[in-house]
């Protein structure tokens, strides 16, 4: 995957401006499936950026932005691709999504690339997405699990955890993350007693829990989905006393984790992408005004994904994704005036005047090749049945 760092004058001339239009932006997310509890917050983040741009009057000669939602299911690649095809048929030029890695890969390869549609995922984190030949059409505002695995391994070592068992959902996301955690932890001298897949959608995880318990470890790493098998294995481990210390990567961290387990998992660790500073504070105020929870997992990344899509179109002077894709890295990175949540109208003005911007956004956006976030993670511990933010990495 290769992105040009500098737009050419030729591209700008070809793109041109076609006057005001209605630009369709897809919110291509898992509204049903193993992470359905997270999808509404993610959609709200993307919608907030679309509304801000559309309401500014500064976008592509007064163009407006209209969003449409499509359900990827998160786990059914065929359903995700079919939903993406419907979006394309409706005239969507770019999509915020997918949400989960496997269906994102399918929609990208089967639909987005053949149709020249740009995708920026706020939450698909599989390392496999870093090497897809995507014709420059795919980006993500969430860091790869290759980075998350290193952060988790470092954190476990700092906490004095010397051995872990790993359970992972049996798909691209789970396997990639589990492998990343294991490699990083063993490099630090830690021991992985077992790394075993679990299937989502089962009613009974006693066999999986028995195998994990037999292997043992100071903690159980649950690289799964909070609305599916990850919680099933966690419940089984708690009920049998197999483990009382858990490490929860991003697919498990959210309000639903607390709703399901509360103080039963006190002392356990959670890690998910997040940033600190003025950007998150500005996003929090914007989200509260819009009526959604700013701490919803990946809602900030979705705001940034939608903002980057629309700002890149403005930089290209066209809603054509093949022109806009050449501007994403330029818009996302220095040099230029920094743009935070709530500043999108100003960013559009600057771009229209031919000025550079550095989109910082809600998550301290810094894109590295091949078009993905360099990554900032929030560490939480579960204390008295609540997620308590401990720090950032």
Tell the overall outline: globular
Q: What is the strand arrangement across the widest sheet?
A: 7-6-8-9-10-15-16
Query: Could you report the average pLDDT, rounded to the nearest whole number?
Result: 93
Strand residues, percent: 15-25%
Would you report the number of β strands? 16
Which regions contain 5 or more consecutive residues with pLDDT less than 50? 1-18
CATH superfamily of the largest domain: Response regulator
User: What percent of the residues sit in helical stretches (DSSP H or I)?
Assistant: 40-55%
- CATH overall fold name of the largest domain: Rossmann fold
Tally of separate domains = 2
Structural class, by secondary structure, is alpha/beta
CATH arch. level architecture of the largest domain: 3-Layer(aba) Sandwich
Radius of gyration: 21 Å
End-to-end distance: 27 Å
CATH class of the largest domain: Alpha Beta
What is the H/E string? HEHEHEHEEHEHEHEHEHEHHHHEHEEEEE
Number of helices: 14
The largest sheet is: 7 strands, mixed
Defining key terms:
alpha/beta; 5-stranded parallel β-sheet; 14 helices; 41% helix; 393 residues
Descriptive overview:
The protein is an alpha/beta fold and 393 residues long. It folds into two domains: 9-143 and 277-373, Response regulator (Rossmann fold), CATH 3.40.50; 145-274 and 376-392, Response regulator (Rossmann fold), CATH 3.40.50. The protein has helices at residues 9-15, 39-56, 77-89, 101-115, 145-158, 172-187, 206-215, 229-240, 255-261, 278-290, 299-316, 321-324, 328-332, 344-352; strands spanning 22-29, 64-71, 94-97, 118-121, 138-140, 163-169, 191-198, 219-223, 246-248, 269-273, 337-339, 357-359, 367-368, 372-373, 377-383, 386-392. Strands 7-6-8-9-10-15-16 form a seven-stranded mixed sheet, sandwiched between helices. Strands 2-1-3-4-5 form a five-stranded parallel sheet, with helices on both faces. Strands 11-12 form a two-stranded parallel ribbon. Strand 11, helix 14 (344-352) and strand 12 (357-359) form a beta-alpha-beta unit. Helix 7 (206-215) packs across helix 8 and helix 11 (299-316) packs parallel to helix 14. The longest helix is centred in the first third of the chain and has 18 residues, at 39-56. 59% of the residues are buried.
């Amino acid at each position: 995957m290769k992105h040009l760092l500098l737009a050419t004058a030729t591209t700008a001339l070809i793109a041109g401006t076609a006057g005001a239009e209605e630009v369709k932006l897809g919110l291509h997310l898992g509204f049903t499936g193993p992470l359905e509890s997270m999808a509404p917050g993610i959609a709200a983040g993307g919608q907030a950026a679309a509304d801000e741009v559309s309401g500014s009057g500064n976008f592509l000669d007064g163009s407006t932005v209209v969003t449409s939602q499509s359900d990827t299911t998160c786990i059914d690649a065929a359903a995700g691709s079919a939903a993406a095809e419907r979006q394309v048929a409706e005239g969507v030029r770019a999509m915020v999504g997918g949400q989960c890695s496997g269906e994102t890969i399918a929609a990208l390869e089967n639909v987005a690339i053949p149709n020249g549609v740009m995708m920026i995922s706020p939450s698909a984190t599989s390392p496999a997405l870093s090497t897809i030949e995507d014709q420059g059409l795919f980006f993500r505002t969430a860091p790869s699990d290759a980075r998350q695995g290193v952060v988790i391994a470092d954190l476990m070592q700092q906490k004095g955890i010397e051995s872990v068992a790993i359970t992972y959902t049996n798909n691209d996301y789970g396997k990639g993350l589990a492998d990343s955690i294991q490699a990083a932890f063993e490099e630090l001298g830690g021991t992985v007693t077992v790394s075993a897949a679990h299937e989502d959608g089962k009613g009974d995880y006693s066999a999986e829990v028995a195998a994990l318990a037999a292997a043992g470890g100071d903690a159980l790493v649950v690289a799964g989905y909070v609305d599916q098998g990850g919680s099933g294995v966690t419940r089984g481990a708690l009920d049998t006393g197999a483990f009382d210390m858990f490490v929860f990567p991003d697919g498990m961290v959210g309000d639903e984790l607390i709703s399901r387990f509360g103080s039963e998992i006190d002392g356990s660790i959670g890690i998910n992408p997040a940033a600190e500073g003025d950007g998150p504070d500005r996003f929090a105020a914007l989200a509260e005004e819009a009526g959604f929870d700013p701490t919803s997992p990946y809602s900030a990344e979705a705001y940034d994904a939608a903002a980057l899509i629309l700002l890149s179109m403005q930089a290209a002077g066209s809603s054509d994704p093949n022109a806009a894709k050449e501007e994403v890295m330029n818009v996302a990175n220095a040099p230029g005036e920094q743009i935070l949540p709530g500043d999108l109208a100003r960013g559009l003005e600057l771009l229209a005047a031919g000025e550079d911007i550095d989109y910082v956004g809600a998550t301290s956006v810094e894109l590295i090749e091949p078009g993905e976030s360099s990554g900032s993670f929030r560490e939480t511990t579960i204390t008295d049945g609540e997620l308590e933010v401990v720090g950032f990495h």
